[in-house]
Amino acid sequence: MTRVAVTTGPVRIPPTYFVVNHLLHMPDVDGRLFALSAEVDDPAVAPLVGTSTPYGVPGLRGSAAAFAAVRRQRRAVRDFAPDLVHQHFGTWSLAGSGAARDLGVPFVATLHGYDVFRRSDAVRDFWTWVTARNLRTCGERATTLLAVSGWLAGEAVRRGYPAEKIEVHYQGVDTDFFTPAGPDGPDERDGTEARPATGDQLLDVPVPRDSVRDDLPEVLFLGALERRKGVADALAASVDLERSVPHRLRVVGAGSQEALVRAAVAEHPHITLEGMRDRAGVRDAMRRADVFVLPTQQDGEWREAAGLVTLEAQACGVPVVVYASGGAPEMLDDGTTGTLVPERDTRALAGAVGDILRLDPTARRHLSQAARDFTVAYRSIASSARELSERYASLTRRSRTESP
């Protein structure tokens, strides 16, 4: 059995399940997560998690506190004596890479996006210097660098990570948790409320809803209400489409563009705004949807590295319409499980959603099944964990062979 220390910086669980989810799906791996700081709300995961300091980015009140936490994390990993260290995010990677070097074991690092975009930043102050040091050291010490999409792998090379170390490893989603609704619908299956609060209930805006039928198909936007996630494009496309294809648009999330969404809710009765949802609430929202939209788009240096939410929707049997931006296109089978449209093209977005909503019931069922099948076969946490477990075994065998 391979003994693996997974290391990361500050982390909340949920929502960041992927840093531990692979461990939960690898019976042949004896693993533990060592976080610089952690807040864990899932009791099933808590026994696997160790932390060096109370939750939050340490050291904001001084560099000494940050480096003390890193030293404690490095010592904890050494005491665990793993066969391999796996770092998530190149930021805050000094403890994991240092412990791997101390022990003479392979060091694997998964790059998620931010740690690639920040690689080319100029050093302006102490904290940008710390980030640059972490990212540079991560690239130098890693035995293997795993990018969460092919697009991100290319970006990593372009920004200075060593090309000979980079491989693609899709993270995957839990297709045993994210499943289509049962025959009686999600409210019967899970005991959850069938219809969450509408936007006017949340916002105390007296918007008449009499003209919106209860049997209309539902389009779902679920994510941060930020420019980079494209919530404004989702609203514009829905308003355009409503003229020819009546539907509901449900917006689930929170963020800096909430006022924009509220204004749309007040003006357009078919749009509703809902707040944040826990993991089960996300699944229930997806199970009710007929189409999921992710109009993710470039925002400065940032682009979507992967887009696991797209996979979660497809695992629930929901076809998706996604902007062809960053690594997002790699999370669906274009034309089979959903549709890719050009970035920032709201007319194309509306057209693609409308095409799906106009399908007859048989064609919609086929599309739904294809979405589920694709995710289970190619983007599930189970398949991702199998691939990662095989990688661990190969690296540790090689390390033992090469040891003097």
Can you characterise this structure?
The chain is of the alpha/beta class. The chain has two domains: 2-172 and 380-402, Rossmann fold; 186-378, Glycogen Phosphorylase B (Rossmann fold). The chain is 41% helix and 18% strand. It has helices at 18-24, 63-80, 94-103, 114-117, 126-141, 150-158, 186-190, 199-203, 231-242, 258-267, 279-288, 308-315, 346-357, 361-378, 381-402; strands at 2-13, 29-40, 49-53, 84-88, 107-111, 144-147, 166-168, 218-222, 248-252, 271-274, 291-294, 320-323, 338-341. The strands form two sheets. The protein has a seven-stranded parallel beta sheet with strand order 3-2-1-4-5-6-7. The protein has a six-stranded parallel beta sheet with strand order 10-9-8-11-12-13, with helices on both faces. Helix 12 links the parallel strand 11 and strand 12. Helix 12 (308-315) packs across helix 14 (361-378).
